[in-house]
Amino acid sequence: MKNIEFTLRDGEEYIQLIQLLKVANCVSTGGEAQEVVVEGLVKHNGEVDFRKRAKCLPGDVIEYEQYRITVTQ
């Protein structure tokens, strides 16, 4: 498992799930990010999440394939 820590920018309260997958380099395009979410391949805090624009907040953990992303403030 590759652990990634993603820190929100100052003033940001959250990042959308598909944006997070892209900026963390888990996928190569936004379209690919949308596909893997819709196909149910992404877990948000341990639960499969089909919402492309789900809000990822500080403390949330996103898992996709060999990646585990922890969102921090």
Biggest pleated-sheet summary:
5 strands, mixed
> How many E-type strands?
7
What does the overall shape look like? Answer: globular
Report helical residue fraction.
10-25%
Q: Enumerate how many helices there are, as a single number.
A: 2
Q: What's the helix-strand series? A: EEHHEEEEE
Estimate the strand proportion: 25-35%
Overall pLDDT level: 97
Cα radius of gyration in angstroms: 11 Å
The unreliable regions are: none
**From the helix content, strand content and strand pairing, which structural class follows?**
alpha+beta
State the end-to-end CA separation: 22 Å
Counting copies of identical and different chains, the oligomeric state is single chain
- The largest sheet has its strands arranged as 1-7-6-3-4
Name some characteristics of this structure.
2 helices, single chain, 22% helix, 73 residues, 5-stranded mixed β-sheet
Structural account:
With 73 residues, the chain is α+β, with helices and mostly antiparallel strands. It has helices at 17-23, 30-38, and strands at 2-7, 15-16, 42-44, 47-48, 55-56, 61-64, 67-72. The termini are far apart.
